[in-house]
Design goal:
heterodimer, A: 263 residues, mainly alpha, 73% helix, 0% strand, B: 327 residues, alpha/beta, Rossmann fold, 2 domains, six-stranded mixed β-sheet, four-stranded antiparallel β-sheet, 11 helices, 13 strands, 30% strand
Chain lengths: 263, 327
């Protein structure tokens, strides 16, 4: 078994134990989902202007964003954070592994585990209680699945940049807040990106954040035709590669300035 | 054959300083003041295969920094260093496959996992073959007496159990070189003895080179044939423990218990402490031989028991620092 795989699966199994947290999170996310769906329905009813997304599509988009909230790169890996603060990060460097890949494996696990725990029950609730629709076509379902996997890899690349900034900031609270504001706004978590003004949209469509939620979700609801899945994947993979390269560069600088504090 | 070459290592840290008070905090927003700490100030030494070296010095002297440079964690500002034929920080991944490290104040085990699962993860990380791992684990479990708590989560272990597990964890991949940074810190007497016995055996039986940093002089006396003393980032003394004693002073202590309270007066030794019937005398064996002094004392005083010992090593080190400060 590759060491990186061992780290990934170990971390995943560890995180899958947090079922109570997942259950509590699930309750909150269902509740917020309802509020958001109702708010958008109210907007739609108050206007007859032509809309880029139908009410049903918007509701589906919102339920998806609630289901995959934990995927977003808005949190620091608790283990890495604790290690940087306590200085145990020194032990990470005495392993015969590339630190970036080691942290990336860990981060993929910590993005995946809470999402996996929450998305299935939440989607089931949305289907059976709140009339959520199925993917637009079988092709859309396939395109959605593929782009969600690459969204996971992109989210982990972004999260890992946050983790690496810990080498300078130690607490990382500030960086996490900045990441949260930018991510929520630009990935479609607050307002679906097709509802943004046209001029802004072209920029947003090509931003790295669109690949986290908006593009896969639009494939699901059929707003982007399933044939265009290649372009979406290309954008996601391009950004992932970019952020991995940036993270590696940052980490190289970080380990050179490393000061191990306290003994 | 030399395993470690270290030449003229320098490492400085720049630490932002906060000025006191509210006005200081506001000024700090615009203009930061930095303090430069010279952690290593020209360290040089060589080490042979199979040596067991004690590396001692006060807090902040640069001990841990040296260990971290040698293990590839920190990059020095200048100087050169070759460990097992590699430059630790530029060939880190290859380098660390051949060394083991224990930082006594931290654990390398996964807090929530049973000990044996941490070992399994380390086995994957170091790509140890299952056969070699099984044999090695069995051996370490026996030597360090880990059997009773292998399945216990690390967070529930006592400090002594944790330290033994950490030692085992650092040796699963059979390193040629072991760095121990304060491995007996906070341990009770029994655990300390167990850890020391294990380190000695590892060194003599397997020929593993060990670099041990510690504040516990008993560790040094029990284990090390060679001692390096570091202070303010420079090596003050390097050599066998006996040589270190002699460079500072050659005096010895004679402690005797008397039958009854007597006023002791001896021209070739001075009394450093007298409590009830126990008298501590210090003398220079170059000036008067130990048997001659004992003969004279037993003839003059009602001696019930006596023994001679070297002054505590703490005192030697403290004196070494005082001498350097004067120079």
């Amino acid at each position: 078994m590759s060491p990186y795989w061992a780290i990934f699966s170990g971390r995943l199994r560890m995180l899958l134990q947090y079922r109570t947290a997942a259950l509590a999170g699930l309750g909150t996310q269902v509740f917020w989902g309802l509020i958001r769906v109702m708010a958008f329905e109210a907007f739609y009813r108050s206007s007859d202007a032509p809309v880029p997304l139908s009410v049903g599509q918007t509701a589906d988009y919102i339920w998806l964003s609630q289901a995959f909230l934990m995927l977003l790169p808005i949190r620091l890996d608790s283990e890495i954070r604790a290690m940087v603060r306590s200085g145990s990060v020194a032990y990470e460097l005495v392993r015969p592994l590339h630190l970036y890949s080691l942290w990336y494996a860990r981060t993929v696990a910590s993005c995946l585990a809470p999402t996996a725990l929450r998305c299935i029950p939440l989607l089931l609730i949305a289907f059976f209680l709140f009339d959520m629709g199925l993917p637009a076509t079988p092709g859309a379902a396939l395109a959605f699945s593929l782009t969600m996997i690459s969204a996971l890899l992109l989210a982990a690349a972004l999260s890992n940049v946050l983790n690496i900034t810990l080498l300078w900031t130690l607490t990382g609270e500030g960086m996490a807040h900045i990441a949260q504001v930018a991510t929520f706004l630009f990935c479609g978590m607050i307002v679906p990106l097709p509802l943004f003004p046209d001029g802004v949209q072209t920029v947003l469509n090509y931003s790295p954040f669109a690949g986290l939620m908006d593009l896969p979700f639009r494939l699901y609801i059929g707003h982007i035709p399933a044939e265009d899945v290649g372009g979406v994947l290309l954008r996601q993979i391009g950004w992932t590669a970019g952020f991995i390269a940036f993270g590696r560069w940052l980490l190289r600088r970080g380990t050179r300035v490393l000061v191990t504090q306290g003994g | 054959m030399d395993q470690i070459f270290v030449e003229n290592l320098h490492k400085t840290y720049r630490i932002a300083e906060r000025q006191p008070g509210l006005s200081g905090a506001v000024r700090g927003l615009f203009h930061r003041r930095y303090r430069t700490v010279r952690a290593l100030n020209g360290i040089s030494f060589n080490l042979k295969r199979g040596e067991l070296v004690g590396y001692i010095g006060p807090n902040g002297a640069g001990k841990s920094t040296t260990v971290k440079v040698l293990s590839g964690i920190l990059v020095p500002d200048s100087g050169s260093c070759i460990v097992l034929g590699r430059v630790p920080w530029s060939e880190r991944v290859e380098h660390v496959q051949h060394i083991g490290v224990v930082f006594g104040q931290r654990t390398q085990l996964w807090w929530d996992l049973p000990v044996v699962e941490s070992f399994e993860l380390l086995r994957s990380i170091y790509s140890v073959s299952p056969g070699a791992y099984k044999a090695r684990l069995a051996q370490l479990v026996e030597q360090l007496d880990l059997g009773s708590f292998l399945d216990t989560p690390v967070r529930q272990l006592s400090l002594g159990q944790r330290m033994r597990s950490d030692l085992a964890a650092s040796l699963l991949h059979n390193p040629e070189l072991l760095f121990l940074d304060e491995p007996t810190i906070g341990l009770d007497a029994v655990s300390k003895l167990a850890v020391r016995a294990f380190i000695r055996e590892l060194n003599t039986q397997h020929g593993t080179t060990v670099i041990l940093t510690t504040h516990d002089m008993d560790d040094i006396e029990a284990l090390c044939t060679r001692v390096m003393v570091i202070g303010d980032g420079a090596i003050l003394s390097d050599g066998p423990l006996e040589a270190l004693r002699k460079t500072v002073h050659s005096e010895r202590d004679l402690i005797m218990d008397l039958e009854r309270d007597v006023e002791v007066d001896e021209r070739d030794a001075r009394i450093i402490k007298q409590e009830n019937q126990r008298v501590h005398l210090r003398f220079d064996p170059a000036h008067i031989s130990t048997p001659a002094l004992i003969g004279r004392l037993t003839a003059r005083y009602p001696v019930r028991d006596l023994f001679v010992e070297n002054p505590p090593i703490e005192e030697i080190i403290a004196q070494l620092y005082r001498q350097r400060a004067i120079e």
